Amino acid sequence: MTPAELRTLFLFEALDENQLAWLSERGRVEQRTGGSAVYNEGEPATCFFVLLSGAVTLSRRLHGDDIEVTRTDQRGVYSGATQAYLGDRVDQVYPNTLRAVSDAEFFVLPADEFASAIRSWFPMALHLLEGLFFGSRAADTILGERERLVALGALSAGLTHELNNPAAAAVRATEALRERVAGMRHKLALIADGRLDGTRLRGLVEIQDAAVKQAAAATPLSALDASDAEDELTDWLDEHGVANPWDIAPVLVSGGVNVPWLATAAEAVGEDHLDSAVRWLAYTIDTELLMGEIDDAVTRVSDLVGAAKQYSQLDRAPHQVVDVHALLDATLTMMRAKIPAGIRVVKEYDRTLPPVPAFGAELNQVWTNLIDNAVDAMDGEGTLTLGTRREGDRLFVEVTDTGGGIPPEVRPRIFEPFFSTKSVGEGTGLGLDISYRIVVNKHHGDIRVDSRPGHTRFQVCLPITPVDDSADPADSADAAGSAAGG
Ligand SMILES: Nc1ncnc2c1ncn2[C@@H]1O[C@H](COP(=O)(O)OP(=O)(O)OP(=O)(O)O)[C@@H](O)[C@H]1O
Ligand SMILES: [Mg+2]
Known about the structure:
CATH class of the largest domain: Alpha Beta
Domain Cyclic nucleotide-binding: 11-118
Pfam family, one: HATPase_c
GO molecular function: protein histidine kinase activity
Helix content: 40-55%
EC number: 2.7.13.3
Protein name: histidine kinase
Bound molecules: adenosine-5'-triphosphate, magnesium ion
Oligomer: single chain
């Protein structure tokens, strides 16, 4: 390209004749056919490219997915070895993949030539760029680590607390069960000593089976009804010579056994063995109820593990189509221990919403931060409302609280990193900054807030269809290496 042609590109418009001549001598023009890759992410960055004609896309690989970050046909946009001037202090590889989507033409400059031009022509700008680059990379590392820690902390704190109760319940019930089973073995021996004949024994086993079914189907009685039923059973047992009936009656009642049922059973076993048989029945019912308790506790544990998996999206691809309701519910389960009893949680979900392409685990981070803030704002009492709805091709997730609201002088600063009105140790001021970066940079969405005393609503808006040509989702350090629009 001639110096005059080079000057028409916005990147070179302020260069002097000598500089343009230098570029013209060292650069070359290259053509690529539509559909081909110009260079691939991770390859050694050997050239700097300026688009002359045609259309291109830039994409980045994120956890195995290729994500398009820019699509443009603007003449003069540049990409490639944009960090060559940093020399060997950074890994000189292409940070993204450039593809020609139509036949395209580029002005191409070898990376080392480009680097030496920048160094000798713009020494001061070079210092500034270096400061910006290394500064923002350091900040990113710190924030990224903090982000992972926050996620991990929230997850493990919620989980340990929540898992503790059912696990302890299962341990308690298992111990009781062990005692009951030992008791049953003992009773069995007593029955055998009473020379129970085969028919009677069969009758007893049948009654036992019936009692198990009865116990499983028993509906819990009110305290008053239960005590009436216990009195009635105690009287009956007493009349029929069963010792200490008040010990047995409550268990029988909780297993749904009543006087007519017991009378039928007594006929099958015979008066002689009634005492032992009734005790055996009580043991049967007790074991059955304990096994039910263990079953509930273990189910709760596995539900929690399921929620933790859903929350962390551990077994899933990081970017995929997700149902926001499943994410919100998993987050609520994980956070339950942190929501005080005085706060009512209301779900206003529009279940007809379609699943959206998203980074699920990261969105969970967003809900966690918003719910965390809402809970903090309500000081133990109020209503937390989680809502979803659709507007056109966008989906809204809303977290609303009835707390004190955000004062107008605070409002402009809440998304700044490290801005917090909470005392040291209570808030780091990163919650909303992290959320903003996840929603806006990674999902091309938006976070808005609307607040007055007694009503604060954070709105997260996500595109329902994948975004094609939007802003670069990379953060500042990466942006330095991507095609800038001009
Ligand atoms: N729902 C809300 N009601 C009232 N004020 C809020 C609400 N959400 C956020 N804020 C204000 O915004 C500030 C920044 O929130 P952010 O989540 O970024 O940090 P933090 O909650 O202070 O600390 P961190 O989330 O890192 O533990 C809060 O300190 C608070 O003053
Ligand atoms: Mg917060």
